[in-house]
From TrEMBL:
PROSITE patterns tied to this protein: ZN2_CY6_FUNGAL_1, ZN2_CY6_FUNGAL_2
Protein's name according to its UniProt entry: Zn(2)-C6 fungal-type domain-containing protein
SUPFAM superfamilies: Zn2/Cys6 DNA-binding domain
Bias-annotated ranges (Pro residues): 97-108
Organism of derivation: Colletotrichum zoysiae
Domain Zn(2)-C6 fungal-type: 9-39
Superkingdom of the organism of origin: Eukaryota
Annotated stretches, region: Disordered: 92-122
A Pfam match: Zn_clus
Keywords annotated in UniProt: Nucleus
Amino acid sequence: MARIVKQKACIACTESKRRCDKGAPSCSRCDDRDIDCRYPVTKRRRPPLVQQPALDTLTDTLEFDASSLEAGIWSMPWTGLDFAPTSQLASGFTAPQFPPPAKSPPQPTTQTTHTPQHSTSSVASSLAGSKWFLAPSTWTIDHCPPPAQDSYPVTVMTNFNRGLQAWIRRWVMQGHNPFIHRSLYAERDHFPVCIQDAFTAASAYYTKTPLNETFVYRILDERVAALVASQPAAVGDDSLSAAMLDTRDHLARVHALLVYTVIRLYDGSVGQRAAAENLLPTLTLWAKHLWDSALADVDSLSQSWLPRPSEHFPSNSAPPDSREVATSAADAAAAATGNNSDQHTRQDTFEADLMAWNLWVLSESIRRTWILVSVTVGTYYALKGLWGECPGYAQFTARAGLWDAASAPQWAAMRREDLARKEGIHAPGGDGERDFFIPSMHSEGIMREAAAAEVDEFARHMLSCMWGLDRVEDWALRTSSKGKVSLIY
């Protein structure tokens, strides 16, 4: 039986040392005073720790026997997909519920079992097509020696900061930017309070005047204090701290604090800058917890869906090629359903594209946010003359158009165009899918293989910060026949 957790007094009553009736959604004292009533986050009971193997021991192919899977096995909770079943991963996260099936007239009993929503073949196809960004090795953070202190001119770092400020304003005006995807908070039921607060506070900030700036600063201070106070306290083990929140909640709080940090660091107010600087260690810690939480999800996905070798091929034979496994799995799943009509094939393709797109949106959002936090903190300290150790670099998708795709079909169409164009170019065994999946710091190869217009704004901004405006501008001019781009903010 689940343990009953006693409701604690709200934050306002606790701070004022007054009795709280613990009413919902707000207590009577907060209602009488017309103040925001917030209750502290209750710590969830942690599941037993599961020993996780090292990243290099996990298989990257994400191979599995799709014929043994039931409909709706897609149980990754951090996708936020409406069709995910209830399940719990080793990291302790609970997946959302299935939507209730539509009522239909009773059907005569037959020997053939039809999947109600998502066939196994669509799950197999989606997973096989997502291994290029879900494989555990793609989540490895590598490090490089610290650069010379004169290798990053002030003009480059200043342009980077101006770009960040422009991106925050764009999020307020357009609802998305190069690190907050248009579908992340605009669809489904995932719209955390911290993101709502950050959006309204940023909106107020960009209408600030000398006459109302005192009120705007108070709003920023109150919202940041509420954000920090509402989060569970960190414990000694970082892995336990990461497991206290769902990965999407980790991402939301990092997004919110990053928005506040960029606004306050470069506002010009001494008080705002000092307050933001004091929270830079918190921002870095939250970004680390975000990455650890995502990595735990990816590890659970890989381990739970990997087949046992003895069940799929004899011990004296070598494992089949990853693409052959994915193909045979999809074929077996299609045969199990007993329906190979074009209509079901199109439906399976659409479902697989939707699953893969949702996985990629969240995965890419995590990658870009972690990179941006690392570069933002490092750039600020560098401008102050403080050079620290390299936080590491992670991989992200640089292909222009994928991040800006407004729907899963548009995203999938671009992916298919890329794969069709690359077919036959690479040597046998090569993985053409990784051409635009690059490490954030060792990304100079993309400037030799692609045009500046073929990579998106986030990638160009990171390249400008890593390699300098002059070098990236030279690359943009040399490849301007494929499109002109702007690098200066």
